[in-house]
Amino acid sequence: MIETHAAFDLVLAYPQWQGSGRYEHLPRGARAAAEVCAVYGPFAEVPLSTREGDGEGVHRWEAILDQFHSAQALLAQHRPRRLLTAGGDCAVDVATIDWLTGIHPGLTVIWIDAHLDANTPETSPSGSFHGMPVSAILGNAPAPMRALMGRPLDPSHFRYAGIRVGDAGDWAFRDAHGLTTLDPAPVTGPVHVHFDLDVLEPTEFPHLAYREPGGLSIDAAEALVARIAREGDVVGFTVTEFAPADDEAAGEGSKVIRRLVDAAVRK
Predict the structure, then answer these.
(1) Is residue 125 included in any domain, yes or no?
(2) CA proximity to 30, closest of 70, 111, 18
(3) Which value, to the nearest 10 degrees, does the dihedral of the CA atoms of residues 36, 263, 193, 234 take?
(4) Which one-letter DSSP state was computed for residue 34?
């Protein structure tokens, strides 16, 4: 029997892979992440779309927008104040952060990631939507999606951690919006943590589609999440971009995901 821990009002499995440019192993990773996260609260899953087609400068846009609609419907149905999300690619957090921003005034988003993820459809060299969620939550989502969203996140309530890779569009957006990195000052109030596993050092955690040298150790990442949970009120936690090559790798990587989620609910 699986022990459950009702730390969140909803665990949302959001297995979107269409936003990634390297999606071969993401479906396996999303299933494994959902299995880990399912014990932390009531469970719901965003169905994968069968739609095809690009649009709005984004590859596989039709499926991405369809899944966004489904995620919004599930969130409106369950109305969680505390939300754990198992992705999928990084762009799953557009729907979840939009929801949490609407119900938690003053929400701070901490984006723990190797990449800035701040391109727009106009600046993206790839057209992959998982490179655009930061710009989307700050008010620059493609128009059909933006029309469905609430107020954008205030840039002063956004912090990066672990970033080390970006292109010209990413850095330009960061500078134009004054986005800063997490500093030693305490994190207070309601907090959402976006955790892209590619922030981790790939020699220690290789189960990634994008392996970027110079990342955080697993211990350091766990300590960072635990610090945020001690100082603030973690009302949202999303884990993304788990790309294990086989079932054995999925099992090994899942142990790390459990450590991170445990840290997010630890006081």
Answers:
(1) yes
(2) 18
(3) 110
(4) H
Beta bridge partners of 45: 13
CA distances from 237 to 3, 96, 195 (A): 20, 9, 7
Both tokens assigned to 70: 């489904």
Task: Write out the chain's pLDDT in tens, 267 residues.
Answer: 234 456 999 999 999 999 999 999 999 999 999 999 999 999 999 999 999 999 999 999 999 999 999 999 999 999 999 999 999 999 999 999 999 999 999 999 999 999 999 999 999 999 999 999 999 999 999 999 999 999 999 999 999 999 999 999 999 999 999 999 999 999 999 999 999 999 999 999 999 999 999 999 999 999 999 999 999 999 999 999 999 999 999 999 999 999 999 999 986
**Cα radius of gyration rounded to whole Å, the chain:** 17
Task: Give which of 243, 253, 257 is closest to 15, Cα–Cα.
Answer: 243
C-alpha–C-alpha distance, residues 26 and 124, integer Å: 21
- Give 101-134 as a DSSP string: HHHSTT-EEEEE-SB-----TTT-SS--GGG-HH
Tokens 């930061």 map to which residue? 134
Residue 63: which of 146, 141, 145 has the closest Cα?
Answer: 145
Angle at 203 between CA 29 and CA 90, to 5 degrees: 35
* Structure tokens that stand for 133 in this block: 């969620």
Please state the domain count of the chain: 1
The whole-angstrom separation of Cα 116 and Cα 118 is: 5
The full DSSP string for 154-167 is PGGGEEEES--B--
Residue 5 lies in a domain: no
**CATH assignment of the domain containing 72:** 3.40.800.10
Domain residues for the domain of 132 are: 10-265
